[in-house]
Design brief:
Elements: H1 3-13, E1 19-23, E2 26-30, H2 32-35, E3 41-46, H3 69-85, E4 104-106, E5 121-124, E6 131-135, E7 139-145, E8 150-156, H4 158-162, H5 165-177, E9 185-188, H6 201-208, E10 218-219, E11 227-228, H7 230-240, E12 245-248, H8 263-266, E13 273-279
Parallel strand pairs: 4-5, 9-12
Antiparallel strand pairs: 1-2, 2-3, 3-13, 5-8, 6-13, 7-8, 7-9, 10-11
Helix pairs in contact: 1-7
Bound molecules: zinc ion.
Length: 282
């Protein structure tokens, strides 16, 4: 392993304590890196705290993934109160379908209904256009380029990470908006961490292929399943794309079931927290 790769791995593995922010009853986390640009960018990683969703969705479910009209209406109400808390226009909220694809789409305005059904990341340089994606262990990523004023919000689960969706995010910002990777700031939010994420050898091998050297990013112990650090692997993919700064939270969704929805910890039936980003008006 070269010294450069070594340095990148060490940076990818770094975790930071994030800011806990309360807006009324809604509890959010913010990346200290992105919070430096709070005059230009609104961003939030939500928790279970803030609404009155019934169990097992309690209390602030934003997902409409379950075929139940009451749960869906409740999620819409929560999305609305999240938008109100962040001074975002709920009518303009952009929410892609999320199907574990590597697909990113740029939106100049509110897309037509159904247009983002098979999409797992959204980019925009339109101010006051809020973008919201949902998570319950998968890795939420927000990219922000203050130079070209462009953002992307990305859903990187195991499959998205294996297909390097965050690299597609960087490419979208460079191709569509002329962003330079070195100027891009990335925040990697609450997700299942290596402490709680044993996988198959095959899954770990596929993840390992996405970076130059994954040896320190996947914990392997004799006789045990490998435990990838999905947040660090996404961070490494971003750093290897030339992204200037990456800020990774230390929060694990499966370790903190009172605070986060966790697909694995709950056995599958649970709600969704959100990652929202929006460029502010001038
Ligand atoms: Zn954990």
């Amino acid at each position: 392993m070269s010294t450069t790769t070594d340095n990148l791995s060490a940076r990818a593995l770094e975790k930071h304590q994030w800011l806990r922010v309360e807006r009324g009853s809604i509890v959010l986390h913010q990346s200290p890196l992105l919070a430096r640009y709070s005059d230009l960018l609104e961003h939030a990683f939500t928790t279970r705290l803030g609404g009155s969703s019934a169990s097992p969705m309690s209390n602030f479910n934003l997902g409409r993934h379950i075929d139940d009209e009451l749960i869906r209406q409740d999620a819409m109400k929560n999305r609305q109160s999240l938008c109100e808390a962040l001074n975002a226009d709920h009518e303009r909220l952009v929410v892609p379908g999320q199907v574990h694809s590597p697909t990113i789409v740029t939106c100049a305005d509110v897309p037509e209904k159904g247009a983002l059904q098979n999409v797992d990341a959204v980019a925009t340089n339109t101010r006051t256009l809020p973008v919201l994606l949902h998570f319950a262990d998968c890795v939420p990523v927000i990219l922000f380029d203050p130079s070209t004023m462009a953002i992307a919000v990305i859903h990187a689960g195991w499959r998205g990470t294996a297909s390097m969706i965050v690299k597609n995010g960087v490419k979208e910002l460079t191709d569509k908006f002329g962003a330079k990777p070195g100027n891009i700031k990335a925040a990697i939010g609450p997700a299942i961490s290596s402490c709680c994420y044993p996988t198959s050898v095959e899954a770990a091998a596929q993840l390992a292929q996405t970076v130059t050297d994954a040896s320190s990013l996947i914990i392997t112990e004799p006789g045990e399943q490998p435990r990838p650090d999905l947040k660090a692997i996404n961070a490494m993919q971003l750093l290897e794309s030339g992204v200037g700064e990456v800020d990774v939270t230390d929060l694990c969704t499966a370790c903190l079931p009172d605070l986060f929805y966790s697909h694995r910890q709950s056995g599958g039936k649970t709600g969704r927290q959100g990652a929202l980003a929006m460029l502010k008006s001038i």
